[in-house]
Structures are given as structure tokens and as C-alpha cells.
Amino acid sequence: MKAGKIDYFFFWTSIALLGIGLLSFVSASLGIFAKNIPQFYSVLFNQLAFGLGGGIAAFFLFLKVPYQTWRTWAPFIFIGALLITCLVFVPSLSLSHGGARRWISIGNFQFQPVEFLKIGFIFYFAAWLSWVKQRSRELAFGAIPLCISLGVVAFVLFKQPDTKSFILIATASLAMLFVSGISWKYILGMLAIALVLFGGLVAFRPYVRERVQTFLNPSHDPSGSSFQLRQSLIAIGSGGIAGRGLGQSVQKFTYLPEPQGDSIFAVIGEEFGFIGTTLIVVLYLMFALRGIRIAYRAPDSFSRLLVTGIIILITAQVFMNIASITGLFPLTGVPLVFMSHGGTSLMVSLGMVGLLLNISRFSRGFERKK
Question: How many CB atoms lie within 10 A of CB 82?
Fold first, then answer.
């Protein structure tokens, strides 16, 4: 099949989200500038040089390299990403923050390897499902291999601990399994097992139990576990319909923890109001729906499964962040894609946009006319 044009609707939607994200990130980071100027420039450099600069390079790499190449290398990408993630347990390389070991620090360079693991798993599982083809509907070739693979990932991530990333990987892989044609009864069975396991996490992981309690009762610990949620709701509420204006957030200077991180949506709500937050949610919905359209028109099973996994991964992360900041889901700490501080996340996300645009060039109905 000859290559046609990229999906420009998806491209410009991604650019719009990136542009709004960079503007919002700089504004939210002013909260750091008021307290620690050197840290402000460090955060800015990480986001712009590593995240945006590296992301643009990754974008063109995945846009130009034939997407079929990644099918061959998928198992090695997954294993490599898993091994790199395990380096967080090496004391001389890892960086601990908030009681978790999720970062690797080499000199002044820091990154979060789980971002590579998320994508590496999707590459691997898409390659597996496209290799076994119709047999993926059988337990022995679909659900059981997924459970084994997720078990390995869970062992690594729960040790950090990083429950949220595991939930995102599991959600995306279940969507891929569903698209491969597996029976609903197996999907429901796996969801039932997931609920039981989540109940176990709530029972034996204090920090998970605390977040669930905050979700059920946001006022139970206003100066502790409920503090971030309460301050986020105050910020969003004070934005009103049109917001205070760009750069005018009050909460980011004193009250919101890490306003440039997972609380950035609250800053956006305060500065741009209901109109601004609604626009952003609509843009993310357009991004998701257009991505699903690319998956539907994908030229083969590998590309269809790959696009499905990436779109569900990004969309689930986005709405998990927004829902947790607005009190509709327990606080998770996941970054808002294209907007929150996180150079690794931004770089990987832009690379995946390039991959989806690459696949869109071969979509059925978009072939170049002879």
C-alpha cells in the first residue's frame, strides 16, 4: 500500500493541545519562580529541552521509520524498558521523592523510566496479538499471556510503588484484547479479578487506602491527604466562567502542591475558567475520537492494535488526571499529557503522535491516488 497524507485533523488537534499545554505550564511554573528561581529554570529546561526538544526528535523518528519495523523489535523494546525500569532499585542511580522510587538520576539528568515501559508493553502486546491472530480469542493465547505479562509488570511497579501506571497499562491492554475479538465473558472475568486485586491494594497499601478515603470523604483530613483536592476545587471554583486571566492564579503561589505537575488542570481552571477547561476537554475528546478513527482505518492488525493501545493509554491518563483533580476519581498523581511537568512523558507522547500520524498515512480511504 502506498503512503498518502497524514491525518491533518489529528495533527492540528495535537498541536493545539501542545501549544495550550506549554503556555499553561509556563504560567503554572511561576509558582516555583516565586519561591526558588534556580529550580524554576531547572524545571523549565527539563520541559523545553528534554521534553519538547526530545519530543520533536522522537516525533520525526516515529513519523519516518516504517511502523512495521516496531513489530519486529517489540519484544526487545519491552524487555529493554522493563530492565531500565528496574534500575530505580539501584541506590546509586535512583531518585526518591514522596516515599517512591520512580526516577533515575544520572548527574543533572533525570527521567522516569515507566513512561518507556508503558509504550514498550503496548508494542509487545500488539505484536503478540497480531502474531497469534484469531487464537487471541482463546484463553491460552489471549487472556492468560496478558495476565502473566501484567504480573511481571505489577511486580516491578508495585515495588516502587507506582499503582497508577499499572492501572493505565492494564486498561490499555484490556482494550487491545477486546479489539482483538476476545469474548465478553473473559473481559468481565478479568475485570472481576482486577476489582478483587484493587480491594487487596486498598486493604494492604496505606497510601491507596488513604486516597480512596479522600475520594469518599474529601473533608476527612483537610490539612493532610485531602489538602490537594480541596485546594484544587477552590482554584477551579474561583476561576468562574471566564477565569482570572493568564498568569493570574493565586493558588499556584501558595496552596497547590506542584501546580506545574498533576495539579496543572486546577491552575488552568482558575486562569481560564469554565470556558477554558471545557475547550481543553473537548480538544482531548477530539484527539481520542480521531485516534479511534485512525485505529478503525488501520491497514493491518498490528497497527490497529498499536493505535488502540496508545490512544486508550493517553486518553485514560488524561481523564484520570482531570477526574482526580475535580474529585470524580481518587487522586492518582498522573501527569496531564502535553501539559504537566514531565520531560519523559512529553517526549514519549510526542513520539507516539508521530507514530499515529505515520500509520494514518496508510489508512484505508486515505491512500494516494495513482
Answer: 19
The number of residues making up the chain comes to 370
* HSE of 278, CA atoms in CB hemisphere, 13 A: 8
Q: In this structure, what is the dihedral angle of CA atoms 62, 68, 71, 72, given to the nearest 10 degrees?
A: -110
Minimal CA–CA distance to 55: which of 337, 347, 356?
A: 347
Alpha helices, DSSP H, located in the chain: 8-33, 37-45, 54-64, 69-86, 114-132, 143-158, 163-179, 184-204, 206-216, 227-239, 251-254, 264-296, 301-325, 343-360
Alpha-carbon span 294 to 145, nearest angstrom: 27
Q: Can you read off the three cell numbers belonging to residue 198?
A: 484493587
Read off the pLDDT of residues 109-161 as tens digits, 9 standing for 90 and up.
778 899 999 999 999 999 999 999 888 888 888 889 999 999 999 999 988 88
- In this prediction, residue 370 has a pLDDT band, given cuts at 50, 70 and 90, of very low
C-alpha distances in angstroms, 290 versus 3, 8, 14, 307? 19, 10, 11, 11
Instruction: Decide: residue 221, CB within 10 A, 0-12 exposed, 13-18 middle, 19+ buried.
Output: middle
257 contacts 333 by C-beta, under 8 angstroms:
no
- The answer to whether 70 touches 306, Cβ cutoff 8 Å, is yes
258: CB partners within 8 A, 6+ apart: 341
How would you class 229 by CB atoms within 10 Å of its CB: exposed for 0-12, middle for 13-18, buried for 19 or more? buried
d(CA 276, CA 270): 9
Whether the model clears a pTM of 0.85, i.e. scores above it, the answer is yes
**pLDDT > 90 fraction of the chain, expressed in percent and rounded:** 52
Task: Spell out the domain ranges in the chain.
Answer: 8-360
pLDDT tens-digit readout, 190-200: 888 888 887 88
Q: pLDDT class for 98, splitting at 50, 70, 90?
A: low
109, containing H or E segment? strand 109-111
What proportion of the chain, given as a percentage, has pLDDT over 70?
95
Nearest partner of 294 among 228, 352, 210, judged by Cα? 352
CB atoms within 10 A of CB 43: 20
Cα–chain-centroid distance for residue 104? 19
